[in-house]
Amino acid sequence: MNRPVSPGVFALVLLLLAGAWIGVAPFFLSIQPLGAHWLNSTINDVAVGGFLITVSLLGIVLHVAFGLRDLVSAATQPDPGEARPEAGASE
Amino acid sequence: MMATRTVGIAKYFVGIGVSLLGLLAGAWLMVAPFALGFQFGDDWTKATKIDFWTGAGVAAVALLGLLLFIGTLRGELKAAGIIGVKPAPAAPVKAEAPAQDQPEVAAQASVTGDEFDRAIASLAATLAADLAERRKMTAGNTSTPHMYGGER
Asked: Residue B42 and residue B46: Cα distance in Å, rounded?
């Protein structure tokens, strides 16, 4: 079966959520004091969170786009069961 | 002629790549408090706990995604008959000189247990049969010049 979306995409969605969480966790859990310079841990968390969000979002979009492209090409492909005209038959 | 079915594999490679990056990011989150030196002493700080356990979760989810993508890709390739299928016995091709290596290909396929080798051997056998068929056709029609299939 040619399915447009693999079950692995749900893992990518979870990665997206984890990225969002790790990005906001230092502020949400008051590890980062308000108004102060960002701590090393905050910088790391925001950077890794942003990376995870970007990569997983890109992965989801590309996966779905490639899946749709495959569906379209499968739909426009001639049925293999159909009789193919011979190469020289029209001449 | 055998019915063919196209398999789009790009989407699985995208998933595999992103899962690998997620795995790396999770591993980094787990070691970052120690590598960057914001964990002092034996008692883990709140930031270290958050980073370590979130990193472990990210790595686990990424590993799960990796396995799912690989499993789905494997299933697709199997369904399309590209892997996991025993190669058909070599087509009985009337021998012209270059087709003599075909039994060797079939023998190779029977010896190696590897799926990849079998897929390659099956491809080679199909190509050889195709070539022989084409030669037969051109031999029957010697008046026209033959250039890589002759379809123009």
From this structure: 13
